[in-house]
Amino acid sequence: MAGIARARFENATDVRPFGGGTGQMSMLDIDGRAVGRAVFEPGWQWSKHVQPIAGTTSCQADHAGYILSGRLAVRMDDGTEETFEPGDVMICPPGHDAWTVGQEACVVLDWAGYADYAKPVVSA
């Protein structure tokens, strides 16, 4: 363990834009731990704006996050659905679609599922 560590999303060097100008995800690697901040603009939907990047039929990230602002709806592959609002802590296993609800951008901090989120799939 290196000791106390500090980082700011404003200084992130790993910024991954979503398709169609619908937001971006900023990644920090702080002391070997990945933390991401996603901004999902109104109209963003995983299946429209990230699926073409990820190359999977649904999001396969295992999220543990906190909603800072806006609203985010999530539908699991089995049809279960939940809408998250500011102040909610979110646990969302792999196998889902998600979209911004309303006309306010949704900002999410995620400390589990963003390390490879919105990274293009590289074929071997």
Written overview of the protein:
Pfam families: Cupin_2 (PF07883). InterPro entries: Cupin_2, RmlC-like_jellyroll, RmlC_Cupin_sf. With 124 residues, the protein is mostly beta strands. The chain has one domain: Jelly Rolls (Sandwich). It has two helices and nine strands. Strands 1-2-3-9-4-7 form a six-stranded antiparallel β-sheet, with no helix packed on it. It has a three-stranded antiparallel β-sheet with strand order 6-5-8, with no helix packed on it. β1 and β2 form a beta hairpin. The chain starts with 13 loop residues before the first strand and ends in a 14-residue tail after the last strand.
CATH topology: Jelly Rolls
From the spread of the alpha carbons, the general shape counts as globular
**CATH C-level category:** Mainly Beta
Structural class: mainly beta
Task: Report the β-strand fraction as a percent range.
Answer: 35-45%
Largest sheet, if any? 6 strands, antiparallel
How many beta-strand runs?
A: 9
Order of strands across the biggest sheet?
1-2-3-9-4-7
* Radius of gyration over all CA atoms, rounded: 14 Å
Provide the domain count. 1
By CATH, the architecture is named Sandwich
Distance between the termini: 34 Å
Organism: Longivirga aurantiaca
Pfam family, one: Cupin_2
InterPro entries: Cupin_2, RmlC-like_jellyroll, RmlC_Cupin_sf
Protein name: Cupin domain-containing protein
